[in-house]
């Protein structure tokens, strides 16, 4: 007790000093961003840092730079003909899209497939193709001012965004056409965010003139019959840019912050903030990426996109992104340790709030060689031999080729075109199950996917697997019990008739047995009592 009293003042002094020191250090700790306080020793690789909300940018609603057009826009062919493609794309057949649409139509009051669901397409803009009917809305333009009286976001000089949007919501008016969008009654809200046909004003010259003296023509409509003579998948007449990518090519994919083009991570983040604040958009498709070498860190632009994505996800929006395409500047993640990638792709890196989509190919149904691997890959969908809307202004047909860099034709392929299959499915799920949250919609798509033969049913190639629209729209998930529509009452099983024989013999037998057991117990009790009293009586007699 004496020792305790001797050191009591010293202990109180030490406690006071520690308290004061913590009081001084606390403001310093609060001043650090969340990701800096928890940074691992070797940095961030497969898993990004926690979200720093302070990095979310304010939406300025305009381009971040002064961009001017450097190349001619996609136009109709010199023959003025549209390609007639009546067969259904293999991706539609593989995913049983028509059956999925019938399921949604049968379950919704308006008998539509995605009606009332708005899907934002952040891309190169969307041309007002007649097969969108009146389901195309203007979002915003972050590349340049509009021309020819177009509304913001409804001018697609590159052609990429229209092809993406067509996979989501095109609805042909010709019954002989096999192609149709995944959610053909959904509404597209277009945001033009990037373009390879525009560049910073100080680095560009006036658009080159065509041989006829007008605007240069680069069409998605080659001469009739050319749809059966597509350019090779690499080299030859194929393009070295755009989504036509394979290992070894110099350029590829719709890359943000690519030198000499329009589109930055900052404007992507601003658009996501705008979408979140609108409140009427349920699904976002981003077939745009930024690819860089992994170094364990995170850039300022990536922090802005991460914060904006997290903000949009908190507003109950399903966010879908392309996983990215392999190029010389975006090498494949084929390193032994999947948790330490050599390539980081944004937005897919932020997998907590983004459903990223890898691509599978037609011949084998396996992951396409150009699809970037990564532990952040969520699911996969068809990404080769794509058919979609002709993006040329004034066109009313389809395209199976895309044109880049003015006149270089290539097949339409890439993770850019796998992502809209998933965005369209998300629109169907939201239409059929309006009470599900965005996270539940994503979980439903993942849980019902065709899981790969890998530990935990997922890998870094196709994530949780290739999407299964029919299963996503019909399967009952235990985690959703209480959110689903009322289940039908169970039917009574047809059991055999009851046994009508008399039970009297059984009762008599049981009663007799019980009586015997009682008699036996009484006998045992009497015998034990006699044995206990006998020695006492003998002793008393001898005395």
pLDDT averaged over residues: 82
Structural class of the helices, strands and pairings?
alpha/beta
Shape: elongated
What portion of residues is helical?
A: 25-40%
User: Strands of the biggest beta sheet: in what spatial order?
Assistant: 4-5-3-8-10-12-13
Provide a count of the helices: 11
How much strand content do the residues show?
5-15%
Topology, number of strands: 17
Poorly predicted tracts of residues: 1-7, 13-32, 208-252
Largest sheet: 7 strands, parallel
Cα-based radius of gyration, to the nearest Å = 34 Å
Order of helices and strands: HHEEHHEEHEEEHEEHEEEEEEEEHHHH
Distance between the termini: 68 Å
Explain what the structure shows.
With 543 residues, this protein is α/β, with parallel strands linked by helices. The chain has helices at 2-31, 34-37, 90-95, 97-107, 160-169, 265-278, 300-314, 415-432, 438-447, 469-474, 504-542, and strands at 67-69, 74-75, 118-123, 136-141, 187-192, 198-200, 218-219, 283-286, 290-293, 318-322, 343-346, 355-360, 377-382, 388-389, 398-399, 401-404, 408-411. A hairpin with an 8-residue loop joins strand 14 (388-389) and strand 15. Helix 4 (97-107) runs parallel beside helix 8 (415-432) and helix 8 packs across helix 9. It starts with a helix and ends with a helix.
Structural descriptors:
543 residues, alpha/beta, seven-stranded parallel β-sheet, two-stranded antiparallel ribbon, elongated, disordered N terminus
């Amino acid at each position: 007790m004496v020792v305790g009293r001797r050191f009591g003042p010293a202990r109180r002094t030490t406690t006071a000093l520690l308290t004061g020191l913590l009081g001084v250090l606390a403001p310093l700790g609060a001043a650090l961003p969340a990701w800096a306080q928890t940074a691992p020793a070797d940095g961030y690789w497969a898993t990004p840092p926690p979200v720093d909300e302070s990095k979310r940018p304010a939406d300025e609603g305009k381009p971040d730079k002064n961009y001017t057009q450097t190349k001619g826009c996609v136009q109709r062919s010199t023959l003025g003909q549209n390609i007639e493609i009546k067969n259904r794309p293999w991706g539609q057949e593989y995913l049983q899209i028509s059956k999925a649409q019938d399921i949604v139509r049968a379950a919704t009051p308006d008998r539509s497939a995605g009606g009332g669901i708005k899907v934002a397409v952040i891309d190169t803009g969307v041309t007002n193709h007649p097969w969108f009917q009146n389901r195309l809305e203007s979002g915003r333009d972050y590349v340049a001012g509009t021309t020819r009286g177009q509304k913001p976001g409804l001018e697609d000089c590159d052609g990429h965004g229209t092809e993406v949007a067509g996979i989501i919501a095109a609805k042909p008016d010709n019954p002989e056409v096999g192609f149709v969008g995944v959610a053909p009654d959904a509404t597209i809200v277009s945001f033009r965010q990037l373009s390879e046909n525009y560049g910073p004003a100080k680095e560009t010259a006036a658009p080159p003139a065509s041989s006829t003296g007008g605007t240069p023509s680069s069409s998605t409509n080659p001469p009739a019959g050319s749809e059966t003579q597509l350019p090779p998948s690499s080299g030859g007449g194929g393009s070295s840019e755009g989504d036509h990518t394979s290992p070894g090519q110099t350029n590829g994919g719709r890359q943000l912050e690519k030198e000499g083009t329009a589109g930055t991570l900052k404007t992507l983040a601003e658009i996501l903030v705008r979408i979140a604040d609108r409140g009427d958009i349920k699904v976002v498709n981003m077939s745009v990426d930024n690819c860089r070498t992994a170094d364990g860190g995170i850039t300022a632009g990536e922090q802005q996109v991460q914060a904006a994505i997290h903000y949009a996800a908190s507003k109950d929006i399903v966010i879908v992104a392309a996983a990215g395409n392999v190029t010389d500047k975006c090498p494949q993640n084929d390193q032994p340790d999947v948790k330490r990638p050599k390539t980081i792709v944004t937005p897919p890196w932020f997998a907590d709030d983004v459903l990223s989509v890898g691509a599978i190919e037609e011949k084998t149904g396996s992951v396409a060689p150009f699809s970037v691997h990564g532990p952040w890959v969520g699911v996969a969908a068809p990404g080769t031999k794509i058919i979609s809307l002709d993006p040329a202004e004034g066109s009313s047909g389809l395209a199976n080729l895309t044109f880049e860099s003015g006149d270089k034709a290539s097949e339409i392929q890439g993770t850019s075109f796998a992502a809209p299959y998933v965005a369209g499915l998300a629109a169907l799920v939201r239409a059929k199950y309006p009470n599900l949250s965005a996270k539940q919609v994503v979980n439903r798509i993942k849980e019902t996917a065709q899981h790969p033969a890998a530990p935990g049913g997922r890998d870094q190639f196709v994530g949780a697997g290739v999407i299964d629209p029919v299963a996503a729209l019909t399967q009952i998930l235990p985690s959703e019990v209480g959110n689903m529509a009322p289940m039908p009452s169970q039917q009574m099983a047809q059991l055999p008739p009851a046994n009508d024989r008399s039970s009297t013999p059984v009762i008599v037998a049981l009663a007799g047995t019980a009586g015997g057991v009682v008699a036996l117990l009484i006998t045992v009790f009497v015998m034990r009592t006699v044995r206990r009293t006998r020695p006492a009586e003998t002793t008393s007699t001898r005395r």
